[in-house]
Amino acid sequence: MKIPFVDLQAQYQLIKEEIDSAVSRVIAETAFVRGKYVSEFENEFAKVYGVEHCISCGNGTDALYITLKALGIGPGDEVITTAMSWISTSQTISQTGAKVVFVDVDQNFFTLDPLRIEEKITEKTRAIVPVHLYGQAADMERIMAIANSKGLFVIEDCAQAHFATFRDKKVGTFGVAGAFSFYPGKNLGAYGDAGAIVSCDEKFSVRARMFANHGSLVKHQHEIEGINSRLDGLQAAILSVKLHYIEKWNEQRRDLGKLYDQLLTGINGVLLPKVREGSEHVYHLYVIQVDSRDELSKYLRNEGIETGIHYPVALPYLNAYRYLHHGPEEFPLAYTYQSKILSLPMYPELTFDMVDFVAQAIRQYYR
User: Which domains does the chain have, with CATH numbers?
Assistant: First the structure.
């Protein structure tokens, strides 16, 4: 049996007629940039997500950058974020001219540790960017309490957590804005790069939309200098089709997560992911911790099972941040996790037999 890490072709085959029809309509109407299909997706996503505004853009990285810029964050400011994420989270902070300030993750959930935030706050701190990593919500109750007490913006990185919840509230709706990626492998994925920002703040949303469109809301009338970050019609139409399935797909991911839990429980040397109390995980990734990560990954690959590592180097220890001179003792959990984490195959189209095959291969390795 060959089990890919993710199988986008399998998903496409299930909704092929709808996708092909949507793409054909866009081509027939030459609605390639912005236009009605983009507007329809923005309105649909905002409605389903329960927010007033959805500002589509070119990708998830742009969604973060646009949000930061629309809030006026720039040189002289500091922004706090997690030590464990994809580099988009931190590089967009630096690209505004602000200083990125890393905080270690919590003990069990790989997300920003609220107990370590306040010690990093200075008079220059403007915002906190929690990441809902692997499909699990950060502890937004504590993070929002800190931010509100200090007068800080909260920008939620929801790139891996579409429709995940904390205390029955969707991630992305706690802070001033939530930034989403619709990269093909995401829970809600396009067939190319795509992203969006959600918010209930009218003033912010107007400025974010303006900044994403060359600083203009009306053609040729540029109020500020912005960037060119636009969702194209093809991706919008595809996302509109997939939006009707996202809750079902997330439920299937949760079922697969529970199945992995059942089949992998009791293996000495394998630590399973935990679910935060009061949250609903959407399992963008199913991440275990093992001491012999690289050896296990190689063994599984030889058995026909593809795995991933998200991420092999924690953000503070990337060469890009060497200038900050961070040591292992500053972020001990993130430093430890980077050599232990292993992402197993996870996508809605996985079958029981496929998950069982993965679990049995892991059991065999540890025998």
Answer: 8-243 (3.40.640.10), 246-366 (3.90.1150.10)
